[in-house]
TrEMBL record:
Entry-linked PANTHER family: HTH-TYPE TRANSCRIPTIONAL REGULATOR BETI, HTH-TYPE TRANSCRIPTIONAL REGULATOR RUTR
Identification of the protein by name: TetR/AcrR family transcriptional regulator
InterPro entries for the chain: Homeodomain-like_sf (IPR009057), HTH-type_TetR-like_transc_reg (IPR050109), HTH_TetR (IPR001647)
Keyword Acetylation in record: no
Length: 220
């Protein structure tokens, strides 16, 4: 008689996530950000989820693929918003403000501090060529939006991207979400960093910046 097809568990679920894939990513995010990539094994990840190691490979072909998926989660939403901003009638100040705020919001919305993954040596690997291209694209979008306010030759255009990324250094890595995603508000830290990005460029944060940004986030 054929065995049951599925994802055998060694015990009851122990991770957050509505699917096995989400549980694996949650466990991997904790292990990668607390002990590094090289010292984390797929066996450890599987054990943290409560599944057999063979079952993990049903969802991800390798540890590297898990790491890449986590990296992608830090850029995909911001690139999507950038596309919406370009198609919107928002002014230059609001576009840059929204992008900084949403990037910081993203980094503050996860259980584990996935922004730390950039600091691991594996993140620079040639295996992640496509991700590196997307990351450069996002950085260039930040520069271009800043340049609309200051001019391309102003060195300050580098700052908004790094201000948004600084949310990584302003949060803990204890498994508690600093600022859960909300359709009704933005994290105070994200608002502060976005305001700072405009201020350092000599701009003035638009009065309706939070409401307009939330509106852009909910557009289908």
């Amino acid at each position: 008689m054929a065995g049951t097809v599925g994802r055998p568990r060694k015990n009851s679920p122990r991770r957050r996530g509505s699917t096995a894939r989400e549980e694996i990513l949650d466990a991997a995010a904790e292990l990668f950000t607390t002990q590094g990539f090289a010292t984390t094994s797929t066996h450890q990840i599987a054990d943290a989820v409560g599944i057999r190691q063979a079952s993990l490979y049903y969802h991800f072909p390798s540890k590297t693929e898990i790491f890449l998926t986590l990296l992608q989660s830090t850029v995909d939403p911001s690139l999507e918003l950038a596309g919406r901003l370009e198609a919107s009638d928002a002014g230059p100040a609001l576009k840059l403000w929204a992008l900084v705020a949403v990037e910081a919001r993203l980094l503050l919305s996860t259980r584990w501090n996935v922004g730390r993954l950039y600091q691991l040596p594996i993140a620079a690997s040639d295996e992640f060529t496509d991700f590196h291209a997307q990351h450069r694209e996002l950085k260039e979008i930040f520069r271009s939006m800043a340049a609309e306010l200051t001019g391309r030759d102003d060195q300050r255009i580098e700052l908004p991207f790094y201000l948004a990324q600084s949310a990584t250094e302003m949060r803990s890595n204890d498994g508690v979400v600093p600022s859960p995603l909300s359709s009704e508000s933005l994290p105070p830290t994200a608002v502060m960093l976005a305001d700072a990005a405009l201020t350092v460029l000599g701009g003035v944060p638009p009065e309706d910046r939070v409401a307009r940004t939330l509106e852009l986030l909910t557009v289908n």
